[in-house]
Amino acid sequence: MSFSAAQTAPAATARDGIKMVDVRLKINGREHALKLDPRTSLLDLLREQLNLTGSKKGCDHGQCGACTVLINGRRVNSCLALAVVHADDEITTIEGLANGDQLHPMQAAFVEHDGFQCGYCTSGQICSAVACVHERHAKDEAQIREWMSGNLCRCGAYPNIVDAIKEARAKMVGAA
Amino acid sequence: VNPFSYSRATDWQAAVHDIAGDARAKFLGGGTNLVDLMKMGVENTRPSDRHQRLPLAQVEELPNDAGVRIGALVRNSDLARASAR
User: Fold this and answer.
1) Fewest CB atoms less than 10 Å from the CB: which of A60, A128, A129, B58?
2) Which of A35, A36, A39, A57 would you mutate first to test chain B, the one with the most B CBs within 10 A?
3) What is the pLDDT of residues B47-83, one digit of tens each?
4) Which residues of A touch B28 (CB under 8 A)?
């Protein structure tokens, strides 16, 4: 699926008469030329303008982690990131992790271990878990629990999430 | 979130120049949690806030045991890890 830049470029002036900002954002390897109200959070941009609805809005205050995406490989709460700030950055969302139909090892491990129940936190959990492994903060269960503590799961799937990360870690390290 | 404008400075002199004379202008970066405060209306940032991105993200040890210099854009998680070394 693809979306043209024209679809995502609203008028030059936002509702409150403030100046729109021209910005080029690279998301999942694709460049987007956008005119944005500077107030637009990265999360709202992804969900409301680019139809990348995998990233979820939970608290919208940086406390739940459901909106976690990767910016230059680093996990970020996209609800607290202003989109205009991230020109020149490499943004990866849950939609950008798989290679075609082949799931990322972390996605496959979450499926394998039932690392979710309702699924609302899952895309944030998976993005965060990918960075957690790359940061080498997934050495053992205690470390995984500590370094994944910014991603809440109200269903309480934590034991299975930890199992999934341990399995994916082995595959990711093997592949690196 | 109240309307504001955004600009990106190329060096810190320009950043300071930009923000001077506007009491409501703010720098954005590092360990600040400005955006959620703006959402809550705690930070009432009306037009002409200026947010910057500059090469100020280093934690440097100063010579002669003079301590460390923490850049204005250092993230809290990076600082926590730097101090643990």
Assistant:
1) B58
2) A39
3) 444 444 567 778 888 898 888 888 877 887 788 877 6
4) 82, 85
